[in-house]
Amino acid sequence: MIKESIQKVIRREDLSEQEMEQTMEEVIDGRAAASQVSSFVTALRMKGETVEEITGAAKALRSRVPKLNIRCPGSAPSIPLLNLDRDDINVEGETILETSSGRENGTSTFNVSTATALVAAGGGVKIARHGNRATSMYFGASDVLENLGVNLDLSFSDVERCIKETGIGFLFAPLHHGPMRYVAAIREDMGIRTIFNLIGPLANPAAAAAYMLGVYDPSLTEKMVQVLIRLGAKDAFVVCGEGTFDEISVCGPTRISRLINDQVETHVIEPEEYGFRRADRDEIRGGNARENARIIRDVLNGQTGPRRDTVMLNAAAAFVTAGLDIDLRDGIRRAAEVIDSGRAREKLDALIQFTDQCVPFVRKELN
Known about the structure:
Blueprint lengths: L1 H9 L6 H12 L5 H14 L3 H12 L18 E5 L7 H7 L12 H11 L3 E8 L7 H8 L7 H11 L1 E7 L6 H10 L4 H5 L10 E5 L6 H10 L4 E7 L12 E7 L2 E7 L19 H12 L5 H16 L6 H13 L2 H14 L11
Parallel strand pairs: 1-2, 1-4, 2-3, 4-5
Antiparallel strand pairs: 5-6, 6-7
Helix pairs in contact: 1-3, 2-4, 4-11, 6-13, 6-15, 7-12, 13-14
């Protein structure tokens, strides 16, 4: 199938959802040669991936990812569950160049998504995050979490319990394990963003109906919302911000595509609209994993400034997506209260305490 798909894409013809799903099944299962895979995903990027192609690829990956069972038996689904995802920074060189300042200086922005997850969880949203742990000189979310004191070497069942009991959980599998293991080396060798960057965040094992998704290009926000609709999402924020790429930014405009009531609304917001001073990118700069962990603790402890503003804006979007608030202004007020009351910091403490009690787990490949 992949040979036919390569030829079709090279002719700049779009694949149907079914054709893409079948082709990606060959890729994910290791039935395609590395040269075929690299040719295929490069040609796709040059042509431009369609909604149907991204959806088909995501379905192939989702069918190979085990699902988290997060609902407690007999309990009502009163606490909203949110998939809060973005592609991690330390796989493709292209992403590293844009989001990192180098081995010595670390990331060009601190780890906003991790801080956002903790504030959102402190505000009453169940948060499930997943991603890859790459062997890299750079600093992704998994490195920062470990420096915060969170044990990530949990079994699948422990992650389920963690989300049920603490309201937040992280599933970071080694890059060379799991259903993407056959393409891990190809992604690293190619060094450019491909369709794998788009479908990775769509395969969250929690399978929630609400998403907050960051993308690296503003042209992708509406496209990815359409993909999420096809995958069964009911509510979604897909964002791309100036200076922070796949988060809402206080450094400039952010393009947001929102799925609500089966309708897609796209608009651009500015930080000044919500009472925030426009910041210079240096004011939200990060560092190595230890420095980024310190920054997150400072934010959770109430330190004011552009970093806190960034986290509040993104947490506000999480609250709105999960249905706890009507608009971003209400969500910002909730985020401020969660931080200032200490509930976000308490959520981190609970996460550390829970994961510290778990038996160290040698992660096997997930099929």
